[in-house]
From TrEMBL:
This is Alkyl hydroperoxide reductase AhpD. Residues 41-103 form the Carboxymuconolactone decarboxylase-like domain. It comes from the Bacteria. Signal peptide: none annotated. One of its GO terms (molecular function) is peroxiredoxin activity. Gene3D superfamilies: AhpD-like. It holds the Pfam family CMD. InterPro entries: AhpD-like, AhpD_core, CMD-like.
């Protein structure tokens, strides 16, 4: 049972109800996480704007999901792992690629570098050595992509923590946390 109940559209202010209806129109449902975020309209606004902005960046949808899957696994967020596994499948990732991303790697060299950066940021509290940054540049991960990875890490840590604290009911096909 969730510790923070979701806000239903009929319980929300007009603005939040409109946002939840827009989410439903876009996604075919209002995932429980959005109902949870609706308790704080400014937070819901910020998340939606940040997510939309990052979707227009240079990272591909697959790269954004690789980041999300690695973080959800590392942070043991069952809700996020289920949601991002469903999204990953929808955008064409197969089960093997999903499991690799959850484990912090990828068969694609660039995606593997991005996942490695993601895990390094987590393990070192956002610190990155000069040598590591230079190695990323040598692999074609320029400063702009590094910043996009950092932004995606921040956004996904936010949702991992939110769903862990709220104990949001999983409304996607469940995924076992153990690899």
């Amino acid at each position: 049972m969730p510790r923070i109940q979701k806000v239903l559209p009929e319980q929300a202010s007009d603005k939040v109800a409109t946002q939840l209806e827009a989410i439903k129109a876009k996604r075919g449902m209002v995932p429980n996480m959005f109902g949870t975020l609706a308790h704080a309209p400014a937070v819901l606004d910020g998340y939606l704007a940040f997510s939309e902005a990052l979707s227009k960046g240079r990272l591909t949808a697959v790269q954004r999901e690789v980041i999300a899957l690695a973080l959800a696994q590392h942070n043991q967020c069952g809700y996020c792992l289920a949601a991002h596994t469903a999204i990953a499948k929808r955008i064409g990732m197969d089960e093997a690629a999903i499991l690799q991303a959850r484990g912090g790697s990828s068969p694609n060299e660039t995606d593997s570098a991005i996942t490695g950066l993601t895990i390094a940021l987590l393990e070192h509290g956002g610190e990155l050595s000069t040598d590591r940054l230079e190695a990323l540049r040598d692999m074609g991960i320029d400063d702009g992509l590094v910043l996009e990875v950092i932004a995606n890490v921040a956004m996904n840590i936010f949702t991992n923590y939110t769903n862990s604290v709220a104990q949001t009911d999983v409304d996607f096909p469940p995924v076992t946390l153990a690899l």
